[in-house]
Amino acid sequence: MSVDVGRSRLIPPGPGRGAALRMLLVMNSDRLGMMTDAARRYGDAAKLPVGPKTLYFFNHPEHAKHVLADNAANYHKGIGLVHARRALGDGLLTSEGELWRKQRRVIQPAFQSRRIAEQADVVAAEGARLVARLREHTGKGPVDVVAAMTGLTLGVLGRTLLAAELDRFPAIGDDFAAVQDQAMFELASLSAVPQWIPLPRQVRFRRARRRLQTIVDRLVDERTEIKDRDDVLSRLIVSARAEADPRVGRQRLRDEMVTLLLAGHETTASTLSWSLSLIDRHPEVRERLRDEARSVLGDRLPTYADLTRLKYTAMVVDEAVRLYPPVWLLPRKALAGDEIGGYAVPAGADVLICPFTLHRHPAFWSRPEEFDPERFDPDAPNNRPRYAYIPFGAGPRFCVGNHLGLMEAVFVIAMLSRELTLTSVPGRPAVPEPMLSLRIRGGLPMTVHAAA
Ligand code: HEM
Predict the structure, then answer these.
(1) Which of 267, 268, 271, 272 has most ligand 1 atoms within 8 Å of CB, for mutation?
(2) What is the β-pairing status of strands 350-353 and 53-58?
(3) Which of 87, 117, 338, 449 pairs as cysteine with 304 (C-beta 3.0–4.6 A)?
(4) What atom in ligand 1 is closest to the CA of residue 326?
């Protein structure tokens, strides 16, 4: 049998097939440990047998550049996202080819910097509401910061992208959690379990997906005036109406909205939660953040022009997503055989690029495990390769919401820092849980104090 590979015959190092079952168990129990260990043991390229699959793991900036950008046409979204598609449908995150190109053309303009500048006031107002809610907990019992940030980021997405108040739908956060759980289950079970089997999680998922679709349908029905609106929802409605089959149009619209809300809110909430956890562990960083926020903002709400002035705050957020990239894994499937870093990759191979390990690669980061915002000082030279840091991905599938997500994180950290201090609860450290995004296992209870 001939194997369709690039010119090279070199096979990446890795454990033999005999390790497949053990690796499958490790993948289910400790995914970050598995990737970290593989990078340490085998270097920048590894071939990992995991259950019935073979994963090609590449961990060098040049490899990331090749797979995500230079030869992106040869790669589709891979393991995990393919399975998540059964839960998410064909939204921008999971679609491919002509459909993806068309969706990206429809959505991208709603994220241009001119529009992001217009959205700054909404982000600031939602941030102020969050600070007011947290202020009420000063001197009382701990608050779950992950839940608070999830509420914030959903609120911002509703208002910025859809001009809608999503807190009218109080169960929406739980519904998204049920969809995520199902997507993760699809990954772990490699979609081997039919969705009609009434497992409690699948029943919860179906109910949640129905409710989310009903919410989308309501938002669409409420949007009677399209002409002068240029937000995502209006653009999607116009695009759905152009579809020859109205049922296909409506389903696309639902998939797209659920995808956008999901992709946008968990990632930004994770960025904020990890930032707060790291700030809590570094009092000197907390003080600098507070001083910067007070001197740049005084008592007023942030505006778009403040984004470049909140320089240290942005450095802290950049460093937080280095250590804890919300999208910790970028899985791809090779369409044709390829050669990556001199190694042969067969057609159909599952290829993994892992921001979590790349961001801690000792060849490109000094003291990689240490939290040090100074690495991102825009005025200090650094000779890091560009693709050593890819929290928003790279190439054509680069995140559409990166400006919005970063602005939200910087504004909210600044507004919190000038007024409140959040401290963790003894015995409740933040433990990473790598699901579709890098969550904090069991949430993050923190106690609220007035800032010094
Ligand atoms: C700090 C927050 C965020 C982070 C770290 C993040 C990260 C990422 C990454 C790494 C990708 C690439 C995935 C891949 O190549 O497989 C991505 C794609 C995407 N992100 Fe974000 N994201 C964030 C915020 C947002 C926001 C606010 C939105 C929008 C509402 C959003 C919507 C999307 C969408 C729709 C895609 C798919 C793009 C495509 O495939 O064409 N993200 N994001």
Answers:
(1) 267
(2) parallel
(3) 117
(4) 5
398 CA to centre of ligand 1 in angstroms = 7
- Nearest ligand 1 atom to the CA of 393 is 10
Tens digit of each residue's pLDDT (9 = 90 or more) over 197-245:
778 888 888 888 888 888 888 888 887 666 556 788 888 988 888 888 9
CB 219 within 8 A of CB 234: no
Ligand 1 atom 41: residue of nearest CA? 397
- What is the reported pLDDT for 1? 34
Per DSSP, the three-state class of 329 is: coil
Between the CA of 305 and the centroid of ligand 1 the distance, in Å, is 24
Average pLDDT over residues 97-103: 92
Query: Separation of 327 CA from ligand 1 center, angstroms?
Result: 8
Residues with CB under 6 A from ligand 1: 77, 92-93, 104, 157, 260, 263-264, 267-268, 271, 321, 326-327, 330, 391-393, 397, 399-401, 404-405, 409
Residue whose tokens read 């129990």: 29
Under DSSP, the state recorded for 388 is G
pTM of structure = 0.94
Domains of the chain: 17-450 (1.10.630.10)
Alpha helices in 171-282 (DSSP H): 172-188, 200-222, 232-241, 246-280
- Provide, rounded to the nearest whole percent, the portion of the chain with pLDDT above 90: 64
